[in-house]
């Protein structure tokens, strides 16, 4: 593996053909999980782990394998980002991904992507630049050194030289518009298309959560209005009883249809009672009727519970449960979006580094 390699290392020293892997997989899945000494066995060799040989866990099937059995070089263990065994790769579960290695010749440590660095450490960056400057074939002239000094204003800026590289025009356009995939190689296009598709779905999920949360906020206001109208209808004189209906809604519990007309009518409403007066008055009347005759059904229009909240334990806390569920979903989408955006940045950074290395 040379310093200029596009990939850190070949995944395996030799590849098995598909028929061989199919046979190996059949033997692997049918083999016993324990040996005659009741020791758990691992890998395709089905031997116990006695701590004497380097092993790695597959990110697909979560089985443990020996580096030797997977034909992996143990010296490259720190360069593996995600590992998929030969069976998971064969089944299409995933492919082993490698971290970019430090540019210093002989170093097998990964670079520091969080610093946009091509080196595993500042020390190795200095060594690489020193070797580059001292190389007879790439010796720096006085004009080269002057150009470096002219490019910075102070020592701190000089120290940052080499930690970042200029943004390529096609990368800049992609960041701004996201529609110039044809400017990239086919493999980069495929990765960006897949990631963009996932990002679009996640963005739709976030938008759906925002609509549902907006609806629930307005629904809570509507519930307060219903309870206040019930209290008003209870009559005057003496201390008024505080009313709070259950108002469990089967339609909301089963899922909020974000494209529904009534949902957006409530979200956009600036005067909820005026916009839903007929429905609210009917709910109040339903409660008053049931208050006079407890044998009457508690359901308004077969979906809304008008029982007194304190007398309805089966729907206890239903609104908070629905709202918490949407909030958890929104948090999950936010995490997924952040991870996908980081993956896009990684793809673009690796592409840019490849271009700059090719033009050295």
How does this model look, in words?
- This is PHD-type domain-containing protein.
- It is found in: Nucleus.
- Residues 40-91 form the PHD-type domain.
- It is a single chain.
- The protein is mainly alpha-helical.
- It folds into 3 domains: 18-98, 2-Layer Sandwich (Herpes Virus-1), CATH 3.30.40.10; 113-160, no CATH class; 191-333, no CATH class.
- The chain contains 12 helices and 8 strands.
- It has helices at 18-30, 86-91, 122-134, 142-150, 155-159, 169-176, 186-233, 250-253, 261-267, 272-275, 277-292, 318-358; strands at 41-42, 47-48, 55-57, 64-66, 80-82, 97-98, 299-300, 304-305.
- A two-stranded antiparallel sheet has the order 1-2.
- Strand 7 (299-300) and strand 8 form a beta hairpin.
- The model is unreliable at 1-11 (pLDDT under 50).
* Secondary structure category: mainly alpha
Order of helices and strands: HEEEEEHEHHHHHHHHHEEH
Distance N terminus to C terminus? Answer: 18 Å
Give average pLDDT, whole number: 83
Count of helical regions: 12
Cross-sheet strand order for the largest sheet: 1-2
How many DSSP E strands? 8
Strand content: 5-15%
Q: What is the domain total for the residues?
A: 3
Helix content: 40-55%
Biggest sheet character:
2 strands, antiparallel
Radius of gyration, in Å, reads 32 Å
Low-confidence residue ranges: 1-11
Shape: flat
Organism: Meyerozyma guilliermondii (strain ATCC 6260 / CBS 566 / DSM 6381 / JCM 1539 / NBRC 10279 / NRRL Y-324) (Yeast)
Main location: nucleus
Pfam family, one: PHD
Subcellular location: Nucleus
């Amino acid at each position: 593996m040379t310093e200029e390699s596009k990939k850190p290392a070949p995944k395996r020293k030799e590849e098995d053909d598909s028929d061989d892997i199919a046979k190996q997989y059949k033997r692997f899945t049918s083999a016993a999980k324990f040996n005659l000494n009741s020791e758990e066995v691992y890998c395709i060799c089905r031997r116990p782990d006695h701590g004497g040989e380097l092993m790695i866990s597959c990110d697909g099937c979560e089985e443990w394998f020996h580096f030797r059995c997977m034909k992996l070089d143990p010296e490259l263990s720190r360069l593996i980002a995600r590992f998929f065994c030969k069976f998971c790769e064969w089944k299409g579960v995933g492919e082993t991904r490698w971290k970019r290695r430090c540019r210093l010749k002989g170093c097998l440590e990964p670079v520091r992507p969080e610093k946009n660095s091509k080196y595993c450490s500042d020390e190795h960056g200095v060594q690489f630049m020193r070797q580059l400057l001292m190389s007879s074939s790439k010796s720096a002239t006085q004009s080269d050194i002057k150009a470096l000094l002219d490019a910075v204003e102070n020592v701190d800026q000089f120290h940052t030289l080499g930690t970042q590289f200029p943004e390529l025009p096609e990368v800049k356009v992609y960041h701004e518009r996201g529609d110039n995939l044809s400017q990239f190689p086919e493999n980069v296009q495929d990765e960006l298309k897949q990631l963009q598709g996932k990002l679009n779905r996640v963005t739709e999920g976030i938008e759906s959560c925002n609509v549902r949360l907006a609806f629930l906020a307005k629904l809570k206001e509507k519930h307060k209005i219903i309870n206040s109208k019930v209290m008003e209808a209870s009559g005057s004189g003496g201390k008024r009883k505080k009313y709070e209906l259950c108002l469990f809604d089967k339609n909301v519990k089963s899922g909020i249809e974000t494209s529904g007309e009534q949902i957006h009518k409530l979200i956009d409403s600036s005067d909820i009672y005026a916009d839903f007066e007929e429905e609210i008055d009917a709910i109040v009347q339903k409660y008053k009727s049931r208050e006079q005759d407890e044998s009457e059904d508690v359901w308004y229009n077969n979906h809304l519970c008008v029982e007194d909240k304190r007398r309805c334990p089966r729907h206890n806390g239903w609104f908070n449960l629905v709202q918490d569920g949407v909030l958890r979903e929104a948090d999950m989408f936010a995490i997924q979006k952040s991870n996908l955006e980081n993956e896009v940045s990684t793809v673009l950074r690796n592409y840019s580094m490849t271009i700059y290395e090719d033009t050295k």
